[in-house]
Amino acid sequence: MVTHVPAETQGDERGALLNFVEAQRGAIRRSVLGLTEEQAASRPSASELSLSGLLKHVAETELNWLRMAQERPNEKARTEETWGDSFRLVDGETIPDTLAFWDTVAKETEAFIRSVPSLDDTFPLPEAPWFPKEGRVSMRWLMIHLVEEIGRHAGHADIIRESLDGKGAFDLVAEESGRDRG
Questions:
Q1: For residue range 7-31, what is the model confidence (pLDDT) as tens digits?
Q2: Fewer Cβ within 10 Å of end Cβ, the chain: N or C?
Q3: Are 89 and 53 in contact (CB under 8 A)?
C-alpha cells in the first residue's frame, strides 16, 4: 500500500471499510495529478484503458453498486450500446467534473453505509450469468467488493501513469503532499 490507511476507532468496522475504500479512490485520483485532459485520455500501454476513462468507470461503478444496495434505480445505468462510454469522457465531460461527481458518490456511499442498521443486511444481486440465481450479498460484502474493484483499477492506473511519464505511485503521493519523494 502506498499510503497509510488510518486506523478506525476501535470496533468501528464500517470506518475501517470506508477508510480502505477511500485509500483506493485516492490512488486513482492521484493518477491524473498534473496531467492535461489529453494526456489522461491517452492510451500509452497495450491496454485500451486511459486514466480519465478509469476515473469515470470507477465512479460510475461505485454508483451502480450503491444504487443496487439502496435498491433504487441507477440514474447513470448503462446499456449495451453505451457501455463503452463508461470508459471514456464524452460530450464535454472533464476530469474536474468526473472527480466532483465521484466525490458526491463517495459521500453518499459513506452516508448510506453509516446509516444501514447492520453490515449483515443484504440486497439482491441483479440477474446476470456471473451471479448466483436469486443471489444476495451483505453491505459488508459490498464494501469489500469496492476495495477489490477500485483497487484493481488503481493498479491499472499505476501502470498507465508510469507509461505516460514515468511517475509511480510513490512519486504521486509525494507530489500531492508537496514533498520530494526522497
A1: 667 778 999 999 999 999 999 999 9
A2: C
A3: yes
